[in-house]
Design a protein that fits this description.
Number of strands: 5
Radius of gyration: 14 Å
Largest sheet: 5 strands, antiparallel
Distance between the termini: 47 Å
CATH topology: Herpes Virus-1
CATH class: Alpha Beta
Number of helices: 3
Structural class: alpha+beta
CATH superfamily: Zinc/RING finger domain, C3HC4 (zinc finger)
Strand order of the largest sheet: 2-1-3-4-5
Number of domains: 1
């Protein structure tokens, strides 16, 4: 039986890649495979994707993390098997991508959370 879920849209946040920005952690939409940055990132593209599309389920796109999240219920859950890759490349930095991460990235994220 073929997997009903699409593969990820790429190795990084779709919108950050397009704008030349950077991200902290990545999330993958279960429904369409869109990869967006997490809410601890400057741009919060995964949540924006949910707000725009109504695709309510995401999975972490970080190595070693297997959790899923339901935006509507604001709860974690055990999800289905998704097609690989299940995380960004292991040599990709966090935050990333390395060539766009500013030296003061941690200060920027701390200020964003306030």
């Amino acid at each position: 039986m073929a997997n009903q879920f699409p593969g990820p849209s790429g190795d990084g946040c779709v919108e950050c890649e397009a704008s030349g920005s950077w991200w902290f952690h990545l999330r993958r939409c279960v429904e369409c495979g869109h990869v967006g940055c997490c809410d601890d990132s400057l741009n919060r593209h995964a949540t924006a994707h949910f707000a725009t599309t109504g695709h309510r389920y995401i999975r972490s796109y970080e190595p070693g993390e297997v959790w899923f999240w339901d935006f509507e219920n604001e709860t974690g859950f055990e999800g289905p098997d998704l097609p690989p890759p299940l995380h960004h490349p292991l040599d990709q930095t966090v935050p990333g991508p390395a060539d766009r991460v500013p030296a003061d990235w941690d200060r920027q994220l701390t200020e964003r959370r306030r």
